[in-house]
Each structure stands twice: as structure tokens, then as C-alpha cells.
């Protein structure tokens, strides 16, 4: 891995985030939400692909909107990016829970990553991993999708005496665990690698537990980018959460993909 891959990931995530903020401020009152979201997705995608083509022309790129650069070779260097994670939230007035993801995978693991939270003025990256705050002392807080929370999460929360906290994008939810705003994030509704690669890289660098819901490792740069479930949590919660997930009705079959 090149020494400045961490810095590049953070800089590109920040630049794409600034581009999105400018677009949002300029056009929010002029276009409807879907048009704004589509324009933001396209603008950030073009910015990231142009920058990676210039800065890392030998590396492959896997984006939510397609591939670029050299053909991917299993285990080689590939940038996995989500130009706008949380299009719906970006398009809604004053919602902060959307993100930009930039990650570098090699040997099927995330090696460098950054998540920009533009509305909060933050970039979380693997170059200077954030320090997870101390446990808050109350019941565990589990971030879930505000529109499609998995049905089994209610049983998991009940088993642990936890409360659920609805949030927008996957990047925002995993970043909330990193920042200590919640203690865990469970997902089983289906995602792709670009939805989680960058925030998982940051979470791992911060010392959090990351895995599939059956406890198996998260693997990136696979031929099929579908990655249907994951768990991110404080390390001390990993064992009880995995046990509660395994016992909960409606949990996805082990190793399903």
C-alpha cells in the first residue's frame, strides 16, 4: 500500500462532500428531492472517478455507479467508493445523516478508508483513526434503518435491554458507533460492498468489532459485490449481540449471501 493512501482517501471524501454541500445549497429550493439526489450522486461520482484516474491510474475502481480503471484482479488494489451514501437524506432539508465513502481494498480487506460527514463538517479516516468514547453507562443503543429496520432487531434489542435509534445512511450509522452516539449497528436488509467498505475500514481502525451477523469476517472485492448483512459494535458487546442475533427469530441463515 502506498504511504499516502490514507491521506488520499480522506482528501477525496472531503472534496466530494464539499461538492455535495455546494450543490445542495445552490439547488435545494429549485429542484425536487429526487432530482437533487440524482444530481448529487452524479457530481460526486464524476469527481471521485476523475481524481482516482489521475492519482491512482493503475488501480481499479468499484463504485455504486459502475467500474473504472484497469480490470479488477482478485485480491488486487481496488478503490471501493459510494459517492453519496444516503441520497434520500441528502435530498431532505437539513438532514445530516448522509455520507461519502472512499475505501481502498487489497487482498480482500480494507486497507485505507475515509468517511466524510459533510453536514457535520467531519471526515473520519484510517490515517488518524478516531478514538471511540467510553461507554455511556446506560442501556445499549442500536442504530437501525429509519425506513427498513430488520424485523429480528426488536428481539435482539429486547434480549439485551437495548433501545433502537433510527438513522439514515449506512455510513452515518457506522460513524455514529465510531463517535459513541450509539453502541451498535445491525443490518440484514441487503447492501453492496460500497455501502460499507469505507465505514467498516474506519470502524476497524478505531478498534470496533465488525463482522457478518453469523460472526464470520467481512470480505471485500469479491466477484459479486452483494453483502447482505453486517454487525458493527463496541468490542464488549460483540459476544452478547452475536448470541442474541443467533437466537432471534427471522435472523438470516448462517453465511447467507
From TrEMBL:
The record's listing under PROSITE patterns reads:
IMP_1
Q: What does it catalyze?
A: adenosine 3',5'-bisphosphate + H2O = AMP + phosphate
What InterPro entries does this protein map onto? CysQ/Inositol_MonoPase, Inositol_monoP_metal-BS, Inositol_monophosphatase-like
Keywords, A to Z, come to:
Magnesium, Metal-binding
Gene3D superfamilies associated with the record: 3.40.190.80, Fructose-1,6-Bisphosphatase, subunit A, domain 1
CDD domains reported in the protein's UniProt record = CysQ (cd01638)
- Which Pfam families does the annotation name? Inositol_P
Q: Which PANTHER family match?
A: 3'(2'),5'-BISPHOSPHATE NUCLEOTIDASE 1
Name of the protein: 3'(2'),5-bisphosphonucleoside 3'(2')-phosphohydrolase
Which organism's genome codes for this protein?
Answer: Saccharopolyspora gregorii
What does the organism's lineage look like at the top? Answer: Bacteria, Bacillati, Actinomycetota, Actinomycetes, Pseudonocardiales
Amino acid at each position: 500500500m502506498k504511504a499516502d493512501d490514507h491521506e488520499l482517501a480522506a482528501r477525496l471524501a472531503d472534496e466530494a462532500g464539499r461538492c455535495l454541500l455546494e450543490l445542495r445549497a445552490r439547488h435545494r429550493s429549485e429542484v425536487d428531492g429526487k432530482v437533487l439526489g440524482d444530481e448529487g450522486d452524479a457530481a460526486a461520482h464524476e469527481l471521485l472517478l476523475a481524481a482516482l484516474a489521475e492519482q491512482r491510474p493503475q488501480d481499479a475502481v468499484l463504485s455504486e455507479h459502475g467500474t473504472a480503471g484497469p480490470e479488477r484482479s482478485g485480491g488486487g488494489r481496488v478503490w471501493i467508493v459510494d459517492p453519496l451514501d444516503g441520497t434520500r437524506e441528502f435530498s431532505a432539508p437539513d438532514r445530516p445523516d448522509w455520507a461519502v465513502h472512499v475505501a481502498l481494498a487489497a487482498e480482500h480487506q480494507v486497507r485505507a478508508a475515509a468517511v466524510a460527514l459533510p453536514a457535520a463538517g467531519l471526515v473520519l479516516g484510517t490515517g488518524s483513526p478516531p478514538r471511540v468514547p467510553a461507554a455511556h453507562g446506560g442501556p445499549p443503543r442500536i442504530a437501525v434503518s429509519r425506513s427498513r429496520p430488520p424485523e429480528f432487531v426488536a428481539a435482539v434489542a429486547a434480549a439485551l435491554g437495548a433501545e433502537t435509534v433510527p438513522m439514515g445512511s449506512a455510513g452515518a450509522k457506522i460513524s455514529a458507533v465510531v463517535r459513541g452516539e450509539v453502541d451498535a449497528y445491525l443490518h440484514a436488509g441487503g447492501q453492496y460492498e460500497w455501502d460499507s467498505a469505507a465505514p467498516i475500514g474506519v470502524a476497524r481502525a478505531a478498534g470496533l468489532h465488525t463482522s457478518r451477523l453469523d460472526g464470520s469476517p467481512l470480505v471485500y472485492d469479491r466477484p459479486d459485490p452483494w453483502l447482505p448483512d453486517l454487525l458493527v459494535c463496541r468490542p464488549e458487546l460483540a459476544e452478547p449481540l452475536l448470541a442474541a442475533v443467533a437466537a432471534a427469530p427471522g435472523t438470516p441463515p448462517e453465511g447467507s449471501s
